[in-house]
Design a protein that fits this description.
This protein has 700 residues and is an alpha/beta fold. 45% of the residues lie in helices and 22% in strands.
């Protein structure tokens, strides 16, 4: 036992010596302080701070009960043991009730060491209980504060489904006062008949299920029109051993409405309500699968171009064009071969897909469709007519991929529009190994060779500018190809080729290493470059060696992970969301920033996006390009920016070329922009001048 500070209240020196001797015999090392009066005892309590008090009951002018009262006032948890002569049973009980720890009769002193050890242990346990109680109370107050302020809906039910407790968020969402709800069956508070049955079923299932783990989340609509996603868990109370059900809900009404709006704006034409190009390609893939199962007939894709749309819009306005487009859509719907798919894929272009038996049927049907569309439309006491053209492609003869099939039909449409001698204004796609195709094969061979050389591929860097400060906050690495025959080629000329021929992982590794090398070179030159963003292709992102490639590049050139940002396209991230989340989490754990590129053009899904551990969304330039003239693009941009900020993500807008675009994006709260308005992509040696600029100004 550690050395104890013992305060002895004893007026007889020989009795005090006996106490000290007994302590030594019991192996207790003690620092002794003796008091004989009230004043000296009180002073010792304050200055000596004893670990234990041993007091005689009878003292001249001062008694043990008075000393005990002083102890209770000043040091209530210090053990107090009476060491006295005959005390009597009633007085002994009185001392214990007054707070004494124990009492020892002087002629039985051998019990003193054990009593001291026991008293010390009791005090330790008492202090531990007090500490635990304090922590529990603090935790209880913290939990109460969280429950009262969180937006999550928390409700506690008994074994029959009656509400025992609910927090303010749940009270607000259920639309009734706390007093009215407490004691009610939970499902009866929902008011919506469909929700009542669903909630009753899930709650009964949770109460009867043996596993302590929560069951799958379920959603219901309340009588107030709110959509709540509930999850359930069980709690066994410590006091009564009764099981209670914990319901935790999230109000996802606004989120679902935003998701539906963004999905609609990204997949449908807002004027006609038809699918847009992206959705048409997705739907066409399903039709191709069905056609393979049929094994007879053919799947036809027809692109229909309507001329004079822009001419009439310029002369008569958007409202008239919208009415005319509605009539065109009505004419496209009912015809002999009912279309399986119908979409508006561009301002003046529609796409349809349908099944036919053979080419003869198609040859008869195409002129009929165009003839119907060319009939004048009577509107506002005038007759409006449109030159109309069509191009067709057949699956799988002309192409086996939906996107390529649509491209083939589009190529046939361009042929029909460009050649006035085409009969009836429509053309069929004819695949030939043309000079262009041969050139593409040669280009693939040259691209493979360029990846083995050091003098052809180069990186340019697109500055990223803070909207608020107009300062440089980042650079995006963009690969260029110094082709020996064609000169400097932009990515559009060879990236798709690299993807098709399987060179993207190798090209991506080159861009990653070169970006890290350049960061190192800038730092060696005395500059502090901003974060550099590197694009990851879908094939590179799915490569098992990705994380090791990044680690090797960072280590080789001594680049900190925080200096690098990886960009992944939205469509690539949504191919396998669960795997994407795992890889993104590993990238974040490495210290890298992660962004979603081309947002709004892929398979956006907020349920996964909110789980992606990303830092930024990049608003695709297809929405920025016409943001000043197209209300739909402006609406999409504002929605994406607002949604990203709700998810605590920054937004980078691509393709900003004019001051008017910047002003609208700034008004919408966009954080960062990149585009020709501030700077074109520049070579590495020109970036050092950018590092020295304190502020950027637009050039348009």
């Amino acid at each position: 036992m550690e050395r104890l500070k013992v305060l002895i209240l004893e007026d007889v020196p020989t009795d005090a010596e006996l106490v000290l001797a007994e302590l030594k015999n019991g192996g207790i090392d003690a620092d002794i302080r003796r008091s004989v009066s009230r004043d000296s005892f009180a002073a010792a309590l304050d200055s000596f701070m004893p670990d234990i008090i041993l007091a005689d009951y009878y003292l001249p002018g001062f008694d043990g009960l008075t000393a005990l009262a002083l102890r209770n006032e000043r040091q209530p948890d210090t053990p107090f043991i009476f060491v006295t002569g005959s005390l009597g049973e009633e007085r002994a009980i009185e001392t214990l009730r007054a707070g004494a720890t124990d009492y020892i009769i002087k002629d039985r002193m051998t019990r003193l060491p054990a009593a001291i050890v026991r008293a010390r242990e009791e005090r330790r346990q008492k202090r531990e209980r007090a500490r635990i109680a304090g922590e529990l109370e603090a935790e209880r107050q913290l939990v109460t504060a969280i429950l009262n302020t969180t937006k999550a809906l928390v409700t506690v039910l008994d074994q029959d489904g009656h509400i025992l407790h609910l927090n303010p968020a749940a009270e607000h969402a259920l639309g009734q006062s706390r007093e009215a709800i407490l004691g009610s069956l939970f499902w009866e508070t929902l008011q919506n008949p469909d929700a009542i049955e669903l909630a009753r079923w899930h709650i009964r299932l949770a109460l009867e299920w043996n596993s302590p783990l929560p069951i799958r989340a379920w959603r219901v609509s309340t009588g107030q029109g709110r959509t709540i996603l509930w999850s359930t868990g069980r709690l066994t109370t410590a006091t009564q051993g009764n099981e209670q059900l914990i319901l935790c809900g999230i109000d996802i009404t606004d989120q679902e409405e935003a998701e539906e709006k963004i999905y609609f704006l990204g997949h449908f034409d807002t004027v006609t309500g038809l699918a847009n190009r992206k959705l048409f390609i997705q739907q066409l893939e399903e039709q191709c699968i069905l056609q393979r199962q049929r094994e007879t007939g053919m799947l036809v894709v027809m692109m229909i171009g309507i001329a004079r749309i822009q001419e009439i819009r310029d002369g008569y306005g958007e409202a008239l064009i919208n009415q005319l487009l509605a009539e065109i859509v009505q004419r496209l719907r009912p015809w002999p071969a009912k279309p399986e798919l119908l979409a508006r894929v561009a301002d003046n272009t529609f796409a349809i897909a349908f099944n036919l038996g053979d080419d003869a049927e198609l040859s008869a049907l195409a002129p009929y469709i165009l003839e119907q569309l060319r009939q004048p439309i009577e509107l506002e006491e005038r007759h409006w007519s449109f030159p109309t053209y069509a191009g067709t492609a057949i699956y799988p003869r002309d192409a086996q991929e939906p996107a390529l099939l649509l491209q083939a039909a589009e190529a046939a449409l361009h042929c029909a529009e460009a050649n006035t001698d085409v009969p009836h204004g429509y053309a069929f796609y004819t695949p030939l190994l043309s000079d262009e195709a041969r050139e593409r094969l040669q280009l693939e061979s040259e691209l493979r060779e360029s990846l083995t050389r050091d003098d052809q591929l180069v990186l340019h860097y697109q500055p990223q500018i803070s909207v608020a400060e107009q300062t440089l906050v980042g650079l995006e690495s963009l690969v260029r190809w110094n082709h020996p025959r064609f000169g400097l080629l932009q990515p559009a000329r060879f990236i798709t080729l690299a993807e098709v021929c399987g060179l993207m992982p190798q090209l991506g590794r080159w861009v990653l290493r070169q970006s890290c090398r350049q960061i190192h070179d800038w730092q060696e030159a005395g500059f502090t470059p901003p974060t550099v963003a590197v694009n990851l292709s879908a094939s590179q992102f799915s490569d098992a060696a990705l994380l090791q490639d990044i680690t090797d590049a960072l280590n080789e050139f001594g680049v900190r992970p925080a200096q690098l940002e990886v960009e992944l396209t939205e469509s690539a991230s949504m191919r396998d969301p669960h795997t994407s989340i795992a890889i993104m989490t590993q990238l974040k754990n490495m210290g890298l920033s992660v962004s979603i590129d081309d947002f709004g053009t892929g398979y956006s899904n907020l349920a996964y996006l909110k789980r992606f551990p990303v830092d930024r969304l990049k608003l695709d330039q297809t929405f920025v390009r016409e943001i000043t003239t197209d209300a739909n693009d402006l609406a999409i941009s504002r929605a994406v920016i607002a949604m990203a900020h709700q998810l605590h993500l920054e937004v980078v807008a691509e393709g900003v070329e004019r001051a008017e675009q910047l002003a609208l994006l700034a008004d919408a709260g966009c954080d960062t922009v990149q585009g020709y308005y501030f700077s074109r992509p520049v070579a590495a040696e020109h970036c050092m001048a950018l590092f020295l600029k304190e502020q950027f100004s637009g050039t348009a």
